[in-house]
Amino acid sequence: MTKLKALLVSTAVAVTSLPAGAFAEAHMATVNMINPLPRSTNFYPLVVGEALGYFEAEGVTVNLLPSDTSIPYVAFLQNGQADLAMLDPVETVNALNAGAPINTVYEVMQNAPEGIGVPAGSDVTSMADLEGTVVGLVSDRDRAFLQAALNTAGLTIDDVQTVVLGESGPTLAAAMRDGTVSAISGAAPDWISLIVNGIEVNLITPEELLTSPANTFSANSETLEEKRDAMEGFLRAWSKGMYVSAVNPEAVAEMLRQGVPEEWENEEAGQLFLEMSIMMNVSTTDRSGDLQPSVWNALQPQLLASGAIEETIPAETFLNDIYIEAANDFDRAEVEAEAEAWLAENQ
């Protein structure tokens, strides 16, 4: 039994004791969801969908489960407390290898938010240049991406030293400014923190890692049909929120100023964060959130070579587009008009 499988088994019962949140009205269906940053510019379709009443119009109440937990998110799916869990590719494949009964049903981000950043003007211009240097990790979760990135240059994680720096912008900036680290393995919010703290960043992320199902919604494969109505409503509202950013980013910015004001105390930082988040969130596929077996199958050998996963799994066995058609079934012109009207009333 793998360590992950043992952890899943041991925590499946434990998570049942966590609070489930407020009860929905009798006529509303509750969708319990867990993701790394519950309400944030990083996942703005949720905030936009709430501001424009799209979840409510679908008869859905969104209940966000506590995200600051050491319990693997997939365990919440296994025990039934979560209907949707946001997972990255490594978490998804490792959970499947551990026997978790899950399907990926919607690709939230199809461009990798993760990357390898160096200070502007650095002599480090490629992954090969990192050999023998100290590389900072924003969190230990960024180690797997660094492994995969080094692998593209024929290096392994043992060819560098790593240090976990934490998420504090001033700390990240100091590490780069003082030369404590040659590079940082992090994500879009971290580059914003560095810029705000006076550090211009160049990304040396290998091109082959830029296209990735970076964050996806996974669901328990045994309850997909049972929860179809609520799940389709949730994902349609999410898709509408995504679409608004493509046609009216000004409205999205104002919704975020009101919905997550703590991320907009610095207007410049908030705007940069939104611009990066739009690049990550707007689907590259014709249908919002559509599933890409070829991308998954191309990515897994890289993850295997880096040691991030134990075995590859054919994407066709766990990608399930059961909700995709419904998630895209809405009137684009109507959404555009609603966003415009909201902005006119709230400016």
From TrEMBL:
Q: Signal peptide position in this chain?
A: 1-22
Domain SsuA/THI5-like residues, every copy = 41-251
Query: What is the protein name for this chain?
Result: NMT1/THI5 like protein
Query: Which Gene3D superfamilies is this protein grouped with?
Result: Periplasmic binding protein-like II
- Keyword check for Signal: yes
The biological processes this protein is annotated with in GO are: thiamine biosynthetic process
Give the originating organism.
Roseisalinus antarcticus
Kindly state which keywords UniProt assigns to this record, in alphabetical order: Signal
Instruction: List the top taxonomic levels of the source.
Output: Bacteria, Pseudomonadati, Pseudomonadota, Alphaproteobacteria, Rhodobacterales
Q: Which InterPro entries match?
A: NMT1/THI5, SsuA/THI5
